Amino acid sequence: MGPSSLDKIIALQRNPANIRNLCILAHVDHGKTTLADCLVATNGIISSRLAGKLRYLDSREDEQIRGITMKSSAISLHFSNGDQEYLLNVIDSPGHVDFSSEVSTAVRLCDGAIVVVDAVEGVCPQTQAVLRQAWLENIRPVLVINKIDRLIVELKLTSQEAYTHLQKILEQVNAVTGTLFTSKVLEERAEKEEEEEEKKKDSNTLSGDQVYDWRLEEADDSLLYFSPDQGNVVFASATDGWGFSIQQFAQIYSQKMGINAEVLRRTLWGDFYLNAKAKRIMKGAQAKGKKQLFVQLVLDNIWSLYDAVVTRRDQQKVEKVLTALGVKVLARDLRHSDPKVLLAAICSQWLPVSQAVLLMACEKLPSPLDITAERVEKLMSVGARRFETLPEETQELKRAFLQCSSEEEDPLIVFVSKMFAVDAKALPQNRQRPLTHEEMAQRRDLARRRHADSRAAGLTGPAHSERTPQEGPPPPPDAAQMESLTLKDSKPEEEEEQQTFIAFARVFSGVAKKGQRVFVLGPKYDPAQALSTLLQGVRASDGVSEVPHLSCCSMENLYLLMGRELEELEEVPVGNVLGIGGLEDSVLKSATLSTSPACPPFIPLNFEATPIVRVAIEPKHPSEMPKLVRGMRLLNQADPCAEVLIQETGEHVLVTAGEVHLQRCLDDLRDRFAKIEISASKPIIPFRETVVRPPKVDMVNEDLGKQQKVAIVHQGRWSDTLYVDPGGLVTLTTPNRLATVSIRAMPLPQEVTSLLERSAELIRTLEQINMSLREGKSLDISHRTLEAIAGLKAQLESLLQGRKWRNAVERLWAFGPRRVGPNILLNSVEGYQRPSLWQCLSRGVQAGEAQAAVTRDLDNSIVSGFQLAALAGPMCEEPLMGVCFSVERWDLQPSAPQHQDSLEEDSLSHGTVDGSRAEGSSEAPTAGPVPARRRLEAASADCYGPVSGQLIAAMKEACRHAFQAQPQRLMAAMYTCEIMATADVLGRVYGVLGKREGRVLHEEMKEGTDMFIIKAMLPVAESFGFADEFRKRTSGLASPQLVFSHWEVISSDPYWVPTTEEEYLHFGEKADSANQTLKYMNAVRRRKGLYVEEKIVEHAEKQRTLSKNK
Ligand SMILES: Nc1nc2c(ncn2[C@@H]2O[C@H](COP(=O)(O)OP(=O)(O)OP(=O)(O)O)[C@@H](O)[C@H]2O)c(=O)[nH]1
Ligand SMILES: [Mg+2]
Q1: Which of 3, 414, 557, 1020 has its CA 20 to 30 A from that of 747?
Q2: Contact criterion met (CB below 8 Å) for 398 and 373
Q3: Residue of minimum CA distance from atom 21 in ligand 1
Q4: What is the pLDDT of residues 392-425, one digit of tens each?
Q5: Contact in structure between 975 and 1020 (CB atoms under 8 Å)
Q6: Which of 34, 57, 69 to mutate to test the pocket of ligand 1 (most atoms within 8 A of CB)?
Q7: What is the atom index within ligand 1 of the atom nearest the CA of 53?
Q8: pTM
Q9: 706-749: per-residue pLDDT in tens?
């Protein structure tokens, strides 16, 4: 990049009105990077002949080889439109689902987005996903319908058919936007209504008027939709380099035909036709069987161009077209054997795609100045907090956001959305900078002298004389002289190999200056708390160690992001995307930086992908472990979505979003971060454990009698401290006999499980609220959150119907594992009324009742025991899912201080247990004598003592036994996959799916094409190598996109053994052929080093040693 264009960009950075921050979003392979190439070529960074082939922004080697983008990267471009100069910060994003987290990081920094849609494939799953992401971040999208050449060359549509096809695509895209819009309006309306209701309550005015709401009809959505006449749609072919919006054609034809450009703009798209006789544009082309204006004036031209240049290659016709279009091309291009070259040469003059897209971006996308109050408030209100409840100083910052001014006194606010690694060598300060004129002259001089010297000595070497000064330093003839000329940065080799991290960021307010010190605000940072503890006017240069989640750092370097390169900057004003160096020690993945402690951290990025594929990693040479650990730490920082953790077993585990992502992470680890040989295990497949209702039929579909049903459930068992009754109720006493719990496990209805899964975030908020209520703090909770919690409660109530679940929602004790999971603990202990989990909903209303409910001591131990049990089940130590544990009895005995008494009571309570056993009653043993209240208090006051520990362990064990007393099942993770395939490979697609236990949900033909869309389910366990096998079997014609969808119970029972004669007949004695679950379970157990019940030798024969035989 030349210094002049750098200066230009720096100048443009100061004018936010002419800055556009935009990202290019689309489904995989719809042509984002190709389009970006065309835009980059306008700035002379790459040659326009290579645009569309180079994929400049795919700078990684594996991106080029695989042909897909794997990270988002930014480039700054300037563009002049008339007398206005614009700066466009363009971010290219990946379309593959595995990298959707990179899309989130890009979207957060932008104000607008270019959504690219393939004209053949239309709206695909990722198109919907990116539209939703743009929507959630409140950024404005514009549309590019790309690859229109495929309609001509591949599908061979006529221009008329293509028009209908394009209309359909627009409808599809608008349908997605429409859904997003209506849901938002409805949500807002609900919120407003509630506010109004509240106001009514406050003022105690009762109005019986019926209110009709026409807000939905009234809400203006016309600007949201994509429509060519609005100017927010460009039709393009990025590889062939052409693209246009309606405006351009309106201008061309208004000059040619003398029709008002504005009229043309409004009628070029739609059901209008040209009445040549009357010289008028009329409506109703379709009804009258006329060609639409768009077909006649636009598409027909393009079609005839392709016909002449590509299909027929008719020289004369080409010349005709050339004169008609008024385009001149080089004779060389005209004669070129590849018609695409000629095509590109014509199109780049006639309808350059970059012009159309950049114009649209400048005109239709908002500048940083247009940031809406709504977006600012959303960004600033983390968690359950309302914007209005933030401290006043924080609310004031909103003004800074909206004004977007870069005065000295404005606070600096920067959001870092990801950290990316670059070679330290590639940093501009370490790069050899180009020589200045004086230096060049000096060198030339030196070389000349040296040349003369060596000639004089008769030692003329060709290598010497050919060297030009730019090619690098010549061999040192005179060390002292050369030293003054070589540039400063010659760091030791080792250091140069290092990776440094650059933050991918945007300035939202103020000016970022090189070397400036700023606060780093962690996600849990609370400005209110900090403002009360910090002194007024504290600056980031002062120490702030006492405030939680707040640290300081300095922005050591600022960079302009130029795709593969970086340029150093001294300062970056508001509204710009930038790279920041020197944050790697203070920022892990994303962060908010500010000079003002009043600034709240921004809401976290919303990631669409769930990391699900995990592998264990170890170095080839055990001695290189420290390098691996360091490398994994770097990888964790460099990737927004990858997770790195150490499992309980001591394995280092990498969790990624999918196979492609995994491959990239491994490559990165090997080549960049650890630089050692590593070996990765086979993917560790996650499972969940659950219980189900006892089956009604056996494996050969025979009805199970009552008696057998009980036989399936385990028989009554007991040991010293454990008693399992035939009904599945488990009673366990702690080793010191001080506490007894009775627990029953039950399967949760499936809808409840999925509701809990979906509401994880809400449950986490609920948990936080409860925690602060327990601590006696008060929290200002937003209406929306309270309503969401009430909604969750109501939904649970409606789903948990029936005798078994009576009052269950009120009796909820905890969720688990990790307090948010899809398992629940129920309080069915008679006489124990603990504060409800939903107490935040009824705050202040039932104060009296709340007092009656007191938390018993050691309540926490019960919850902890449950959490532990839910985290790792008894089948293969995988987390539980969809299990309800109901605590039916919980007795606490007095503790050790009254040693004598307690022993007595012990034996007494034991007696009762024995008694009940002797009677063979199925009832749980009744409680021991009720202890004196004071003693109980004395005992349990010491709630961190050993009693609590024992109770946790007992609770955990009891849960596990209760789980085992029910029919157990494994749950497998399922992917949904959408495959687009042509009819001729359809058979093979089904073949591959069938082999991998896939289930086809539906199949339909994409209208107007010969493509089929197949939607299928596939177990994650069977998915490895799926995409590859697919590509091979279908010769690359079909490529699946796998997205994690849900967990599904595998129907077979891992512990099943044949019991009836029919079953023996069907499955044989060992019955090991059909049991897929057992295979999965044993594989997991083996991996974890757990005991696997398996015979290694099935039919042993006695071995005889030869020597003995003799
Ligand atoms: N026929 C045709 N092919 C195109 C066009 N634009 C892009 N392609 C091809 O589509 C393929 C994918 O292009 P990319 O630009 O890499 O797509 P992408 O959207 O960046 O893909 P990801 O980044 O992996 O999501 C390449 O082979 C391009 O040559 C077009 O206008 N017409
Ligand atoms: Mg790409």
Answers
A1: 1020
A2: yes
A3: 29
A4: 888 888 888 888 877 777 889 999 999 998 888 8
A5: yes
A6: 34
A7: 29
A8: 0.77
A9: 544 444 444 445 567 788 888 888 888 888 778 888 999 999 99
